[in-house]
Amino acid sequence: MNPERRIGIVDDDEALRDALSWLFSTRNHQVSTFADAESFLAAYSPDDFGCLLLDVRMPGMGGLEAFSKLKEYAYCPPVIFLTGHGDVPMAVSALKQGAADFLEKPFSDNEMVDLAERCLAQDAERRRTFEARESAEARLAQLTPREREVMKLILVGRLNKQIADDLSISMKTVEVHRARTLEKMQVKTAMELAALLRDAGIEP
């Protein structure tokens, strides 16, 4: 995990951007600010941010449209929408689409920092799972169809002789497939293999 992962603030109100940037800096958070969604998206990389604050209504591209583009990436950090009173229904719609939360302006400093820090913690946990899944899927992609068959039988506790009978192959062949499967998955035992897939949230 990147310890310098930043909070991104996208709002056309310069005074609000400056105030939020100062607020987060007093809590030792790194911040990047953007006056519009277009400049933010041009500079955006999912790995750079642990929490995003998007204004619902901005000139040009609004926050909801920007959010839709963020979700096109394989990973999207938690998003908090900033909204005026009249835009609350739009913010509620964003929640249904997967946003973390929304705050109605004006909001308290403590409320904002508490929410952003919860999102940063959520991002760290979600990113660990995401990265574990990406790594596990890359390893699974190296397996041959036969090695996948053997892996599934290993995971349900079948012994080599039973696997040989199930697949109508020799025990020696099973042993070769088993060794190659564990090597490609970068584990030493069936228990480690099961734990790897479980932690990545992958059904074998």
Automatic annotation (TrEMBL):
Xref: InterPro entries: CheY-like_superfamily, Sig_transdc_resp-reg_C-effctor, Sig_transdc_resp-reg_receiver, Tscrpt_reg_LuxR_C, WH-like_DNA-bd_sf
Residues annotated with 4-aspartylphosphate modification: D55
SUPFAM superfamilies, per database record: C-terminal effector domain of the bipartite response regulators, CheY-like
Pfam families per record: GerE, Response_reg
Alphabetical UniProt keywords: DNA-binding, Phosphoprotein, Transcription, Transcription regulation, Two-component regulatory system
Residues covered by the Response regulatory domain: 6-120
All residue ranges annotated as the HTH luxR-type domain in the record: 136-201
Molecular function GO terms recorded: DNA binding
Record-linked Gene3D superfamilies: 3.40.50.2300, Winged helix-like DNA-binding domain superfamily/Winged helix DNA-binding domain (1.10.10.10)
Domain of life: Bacteria
Biological processes, Gene Ontology terms: phosphorelay signal transduction system; regulation of DNA-templated transcription
Protein name according to UniProt: Two-component system, LuxR family, response regulator DctR
Annotated organism of origin: Formivibrio citricus
